[in-house]
Amino acid sequence: MLNIHRIGFRLMLALVMLFGVNYAYAEQSQLRVIVNDNVKVNSLSESSVRWIFSMRQTTWEDGSAIKVYVLHQQDPAHQNFCKDVLSMFPYQLERTWNKLAYSGLGEKPTLVRDSQEMIDMVSQEPGAIGYVLSTSLPPNLHVLQISKEG
Amino acid sequence: MTKFLVVYLLCTFSFFLANLSHAGEFVWHGFGAQGVIQSSDSNYINESGDVSFSLTEVGLNTSYRINQKLRVSAQGIYINDGNRFNEGLRLDYLFLDYQLLSTPSWNVNAHLGRYKNYHWLYSATRDVPHTMPTIVLPQSSYFDAFRDASLGSDGISLIAQHHNELGELDMRWSYGNTSVNQEQTENLMSEFATGELEHDFDTQFSLSFSPLSSGVAMGVSMLRTDFSYDAGNNDVFIDGKAKLFRLMLNLTYSAEFWDINAEAMRERTDFIGLLSNGGIKDTVAEGGYVQGRLFLTPQVTLLARIDMFDADKDDRHGRLLQQNSGGAVPDYFAYRDQITFGASWDFHANWRVRAEFHKVKGRARLAPVFIPDTVTNDSEYWDIWALQVIYWF
């Protein structure tokens, strides 16, 4: 009887640990939209984020310039960001930027090599916005709350 | 010689600018493409039907942000595409972009100068190879001989963009004209046209809407344009005018591993004068294409397309055309149905190689339009193949 209790207790413990690990993993891989600390915005709708990353909105509400940073098209963070936040596919975004850059309508966002460079650039550049798959964020930037629509 | 100089300059610039594309307030982009193309039984590329390397497209653009509301953008290109387009350097666009309104849900911009045609699916970057689905675009909507007149204009353009919980809405209006040189006149009309063709004006309006998170985008555009012709010495044409009205619809659907693009157009042309024997009559042309792409991997894309065009909706099989020309112009110059298969591979960052094959039934939309080359184009069926390598930054 005691053994059954012990086995049951250990099984429960294992499940809790497993859940904990999963939870921690989920925490680690959560995609965050980040902005420089001088940006006085705490939340945006998904369509507003798409508007900004499609390079259509070029200034924040106070009139200051928006600096958009993106990762390479094949980067998992970029793919997650496109599908989960922007509700579009990376190739659609690329097409939008190409149309802007090669017809004079606008500019492409700035491409960064990896998440670390993304964090560095967004934390250093006033008006900057980007995204990361990370939990440990330095000062000088904050995470935006993204609200779903539709 | 010009071709080699331009390619050399692009290579030199690209090395300097690729890593400095956001240097200061100047932003630089460019592209270069070289290919090989053949249409053995038509005058589409050349009269001989031989394999041709006249498939060169090179461009360099820059934009400078003067302040948050004002930008200036410019692009110069060099093209050498055989009979399709006249070889040479062109100022593709050069305009001031002034932001009239910018709110979190509205954007309104005015462009003054030489602006691009933003109204059709592919018109804004028609001359930028890596942004196009194929080397040869569907001719029903993107008639090569009309390229320079439809690429953009000198004038004013307004663009309004809006988004809300329903989706994204784009509205565009433009008014301007282009200058037509003698080579373009001959390409469009005939080598027997010795006079001057002028593009009086061109006004367009378009609307497109993309419902939120649907992957669907749909649009409508309207074009109204006039051309005038002043006959020259020993000209087969007389003074006259061509008034054109075009209505276009487009639809796109984008899925993760495939997409579909379609455009349909109806074009009414009214002629005043031009041919003394009244050989040119008012027509309503109709056409459209459906194109599907499969993204096998992020680097490899397959494409299939069907494009159909009738030069006169009241004479789809060309019987009247043949009859009215006394048998000089065969009936197959009245229509053009084209099937295209293509593949592209992005073999390295910013490098692409692509190949395509077109099987064509009919000879409509082959320049020159008014007095077609019936000697070289002596059969109903013909084909085109092409291979191209593209670099961009």
Tell me about this structure.
The complex is a heterodimer of chains A (150) and B (393). Chain A is of the alpha/beta class. Chain A is 46% helix and 19% strand. Chain A has a 6-stranded mixed β-sheet, sandwiched between helices. Chain A is globular and about 70 Å long. Chain B is mostly beta strands and 393 residues long. Chain B has a single domain (31-392), classed as Porin. Helix content of chain B is 9%, strand content 54%. Chain B has a 16-stranded antiparallel barrel. In chain B, a hairpin with a 3-residue loop joins strand 4 and strand 5 (106-116). Chain B is globular and about 60 Å long. The relative contact order of chain B is 0.13. The chains are: A alpha/beta (150), B mainly beta (393). The A-B interface holds A 47-48, 50-51, 56-59, 61, 63, 65, 73-74, 87-92, 95, 98-99, 101-105, 107-108, 110, 149-150 and B 22, 27, 29, 31, 59, 61, 63, 68, 73-75, 93, 95, 97, 99, 102, 104-105, 107, 111, 115-116, 118, 124-125, 128, 130-131, 159, 161, 163-165, 168, 212-213, 215, 254-256, 295, 298.
| Helix/strand structural class of chain A | alpha/beta
Could you name the CATH topology of chain A? D-Maltodextrin-Binding Protein, domain 2
Query: What's the CATH H-level superfamily name of chain B?
Result: Porin
Strand content of chain A: 15-25%
Termini gap of chain B: 24 Å
As a percent range, the share of strand residues of chain B is over 45%
Helix-strand category of chain B: mainly beta
Q: What is the residue-mean pLDDT of chain B, rounded to a whole number?
A: 91
Organism (chain A): Paraglaciecola mesophila
Protein name (chain A): PBP domain-containing protein
Protein name (chain B): Phosphate-selective porin O and P
Keywords (chain B): Signal
